[in-house]
Amino acid sequence: NFSIFVQSVMEGPRPVVLSGPSGAGKSTLMKMLLRDYDGVFGFSVSHTTRDPRPGEVDGKDYHFSNREAMQEDIDDGKYIENAEFSGNLYGTSKSSVDDVRAKGLICILDVEIQGVRNIKETDLDPIYVSIQPPSIEILEKRLRDRNTETEESLQKRLEAARVDMELSNEPGVFDVLIVNDDLEEAYDKLQSVLIEEITKVQSTKKEKCNS
Ligand SMILES: Nc1ncnc2c1ncn2[C@@H]1O[C@H](COP(=O)(O)OP(=O)(O)OP(=O)(O)O)[C@@H](O)[C@H]1O
Ligand SMILES: Nc1nc2c(ncn2[C@@H]2O[C@H](COP(=O)(O)O)[C@@H](O)[C@H]2O)c(=O)[nH]1
Question: Which Gene3D superfamilies would you find in this protein's record (predicted)?
């Protein structure tokens, strides 16, 4: 009814959590959404203690930080969630999410599985999507070809991937699992999962233009 409609417009679209093993293709798919839907999606920029990769920009890909500073802010309650992954600390600050949501955009959070668990304890109410690789062998090849990891960090990521692939298949953890084998097919599936929220943002934008 009308009051539910008004409430949903005021609350804005539901955020989206993209999770799944490192190398499964989350960033690739997210960049496709940002490219194709101008003014619809916004990325919640996480904080991390890991070193920047070549080409990564502070404040755009991550807020690159150090453990002391991050831990202090976590203790001060400034984070929605945080987790240790492959020897580094990662976390979503409240302000990163608020900045995106204040603009009426669909907020995308790219988090590993512990982050998913922690977000479930909040009132964020996102759509939970897990991006999965076709197999651990293909994941390993993608990670090696990406050329971002040392042998040690690659092995840690593969170990975390095995755990992720098992836990993600448990019922009720994710709203949808997408196997990213053919990229275009995976992208089509992702768009179809998000179409309701996309349409919501697009119609709100149109109404604003017409008023
Ligand atoms: N369907 C696909 N087929 C082949 N290669 C792919 C496919 N999807 C993504 N890739 C490639 O696999 C690599 C890993 O993808 P991407 O960096 O998007 O993964 P990710 O899940 O974001 O990883 P991380 O969690 O470590 O950030 C990239 O080099 C990307 O170009
Ligand atoms: N729990 C959280 N996990 C996060 C966050 N930001 C990123 N991640 C996850 O970390 C791994 C590794 O990322 P990489 O950029 O070093 O390859 C990956 O699974 C991300 O999803 C966060 O804020 N919280």
Answer: P-loop containing nucleotide triphosphate hydrolases
Residue 162's SS3 state is helix
Atom of ligand 2 nearest to the CA of 88: 16
Question: How remote is the C-alpha of 172 from its chain's centroid?
Answer: 18
Query: Locate tokens 């101008």: which residue?
Result: 38
Map out the domains of the chain with their CATH numbers.
Answer: 11-210 (3.40.50.300)
List residues near ligand 2 (CB under 6 A): 22, 26, 46, 50, 81, 83, 85, 90-92, 110-112, 114-115
Expressed in angstroms and rounded, the spacing between residue 141 Cα and the centre of ligand 2 is 19
Residues acting as catalytic residues: 53, 146, 157
Task: Answer whether residue 5 shows pLDDT above 70.
Answer: no
Instruction: Give pLDDT tens digits for 185-202.
Output: 999 999 999 999 999 999
Amino acid at 35: R
Within 8 A by CB and 6+ apart from 24, the residues are 131, 132, 133, 139, 161, 180
Structure ipTM over 0.95, yes or no: yes
Q: What is the pTM of this model?
A: 0.95
Closest CA to 53 of 159, 146, 182, 167: 146
Strand-pair category, 88-93 with 47-48: antiparallel
What pLDDT, on a 0 to 100 scale, did the predictor assign at position 205?
Answer: 85
The burial class, CB within 10 Å (0-12 / 13-18 / 19+), for 87 is exposed
Does 144 sit in the ligand 1 pocket, CB within 6 Å?
no
